[in-house]
Fold this protein.
Amino acid sequence: MYLNCASMMSQATKFLIVASILFTAKARINNCEDKLLELCVCGNQYIDRATKFVVNCTDTGFTNSDMLMVLPKKTNVLIFTGNHISILPVNIFGEQADLTALEVIDMSNNGITEIKGKTFHHVGSVRRLMLNHNNISIAEEDDRNFHHPRVFSNFENLEELHLTNAFADNTDEELADDLHDIFVNSNLTKLYKLHLEQNEIKKWKDEKVFCDLPYLHDLYLGDNYIPSLNFNILCLKKLRYLDLESNNISKFTQEDLDTFDKLANDPSRTESLTLEIGNNPIKCDANSKNLYAWSQKTDVKIRNEDALTCWNVKFGKILNLKSLTESKHAKFSKALMVLLVVLVCILLTLITAYVYLKKDSVKTKLSPVLEAITRKVQYTTIESQEV
Ligand SMILES: *[C@@H]1O[C@H](CO)[C@@H](O)[C@H](O)[C@H]1NC(C)=O
Ligand SMILES: *[C@@H]1O[C@H](CO)[C@@H](O)[C@H](O)[C@H]1NC(C)=O
Ligand SMILES: *[C@@H]1O[C@H](CO)[C@@H](O)[C@H](O)[C@H]1NC(C)=O
Ligand SMILES: *[C@@H]1O[C@H](CO)[C@@H](O)[C@H](O)[C@H]1NC(C)=O
């Protein structure tokens, strides 16, 4: 009996010791369930109005992505930023990846230069992918083929793609060539939001570059070098926000404005179209006047339309489009007013002069009339007194 009890006690103690060792080991790897992830922080967090299991490997100094093969299956949000991974390998989450809960991947700011065509597998549940601030080349270069048009093809349910400053500098030509191929080959039928700011983009190889993104609502192209509305937007039936801020646009032609109107007035639409066109070198000319007039009557919403400026080439000055147009109006009506006053003065002078010159004949002509009036007044007074 005693013996039994003692052995049970020792068993229990052993169990407790083992358990506590396991527990401290777990604690040491920050709830991440694997030694490879020990530099990361894992746990539940309240994000996007829900509790999510977040794996956060920020500034952990990783130079390879091996730890991504052992992500906990329950991971909802992967934050992997500020590391140094030049090349994202094939099957980055492992061949047998089973990450059906993964919704967000943030791989911003990792110095990524190349993404292998088959990097992302089993990512059908991911809704947001962020690759901002990297150095990605997607064009063919020397013997190495960086061209992987199917790079996003497994993101069947992707809603947001963030590619702000994602590409290597001086690749705008290749980028323009390849983006279309990528979108055609990736079947991003649910993509809602696309960020492509700060990528030095000037032009597109194909004006239908975005036409394979039929669900696109918000397109961010700010901080590029785009010189005009040089891509098709009429195919983007759901477009509700187009950001062209801080580009190199010198004018919007009547055709461009008609295009915006045509899209905004499409009967199948349920939302309005908003444009951001601030901070572009729009020239002060007939086109800019036309732009202002259009902005006052169109159904398209223009963000900060009162702050739109144009560039006066002759005087090297930036002018506010609204005050420029309105001051011209004001100048015109002022001139009209002065003219009117002058004319009235001349008329009055002429009448006075005429009356003065012909005062005798005027008097004789008017006297019978005056007399009649006086008489009439007298009669009326008498009549009223009689009553
Ligand atoms: C991830 O970790 C970094 C650094 O510890 C922190 O600044 C950031 O807020 C974390 N992100 C989330 C979503 O918890
Ligand atoms: C980006 O890549 C180019 C070569 O493609 C390299 O010269 C440059 O230093 C890289 N920039 C950064 C910030 O890594
Ligand atoms: C594209 O995705 C849709 C569903 O999102 C699917 O029905 C269709 O077959 C896919 N097409 C291709 C070419 O993969
Ligand atoms: C911006 O446009 C002007 C012509 O309007 C052109 O001379 C200039 O090179 C363009 N800048 C860039 C960075 O493309």
